[in-house]
Amino acid sequence: MNLADVIRTIPDYPKPGIMFRDITTLLGDARAFRRAVDELVQPFAGMKIDKVAGIEARGFILGGAVAHQLSAGFIPLRKKGKLPHRTRAVEYALEYGSDAMEMHLDAVKPGEKVMLVDDLIATGGTALAAAQLLKEAGAQIVAAAFVVDLPELGGAARLAAAGVPVSTLVAFAGH
Ligand code: AMP
């Protein structure tokens, strides 16, 4: 089975020129979902990862499954205003404007080994913001794993240049 074949592409969503890589079709296919989680976990199986951090919202679905399989804890990285306890926040640039991501202050202890998970890396802005939050909390980021890479947008290279080992399962050309 080829994971790329079970990812649906929706042209011009959410705006003209974007090819939206929709992983709901992968998640809805039992064999594909299991395969994707197995492949995300496989390189890190022996690494004693303490926690998996997932980026809202699709990173929760994949990250939760990855955390379960690694017997690790799970950290939700959420949009501003969603977490109920004390948080640290980071602002990051979007194509138009900016957004903020938050994490509970006590979500990670200094020195803990954390793996970052999201569905897709494009420019890397979201993942770099997540990595910054985790590093500020003292986490050791041992890996960042994504189902989809859009290499032409340079995010995986940017994250690697920031010292985060990146692993991706499927690459698509273009935006
Ligand atoms: P970026 O910060 O540019 O790396 O964008 C990554 C975030 O935006 C991820 O959380 C993705 O879910 C979402 N995203 C960006 N581009 C796409 C795309 N072409 N298809 C689906 N999701 C995308």
What does this structure look like?
The protein is an alpha/beta fold. It has one domain (about 45-170): Rossmann fold, CATH 3.40.50. About 25% of the residues lie in helices and about 35% in strands. It is built from five helices and nine strands; from the N terminus they run ββααβαββββαβαβ. Helix 5 links the parallel strand 8 (about 140-150) and strand 9 (about 165-170). The radius of gyration is 15 Å and the shape is globular. Adenosine monophosphate binds next to strand 2, strand 7 and helix 4.
Any key phrases for this structure?
Rossmann fold, seven-stranded mixed beta sheet, binds adenosine monophosphate, single chain, 175 residues, alpha/beta, 27% helix, two-stranded antiparallel sheet
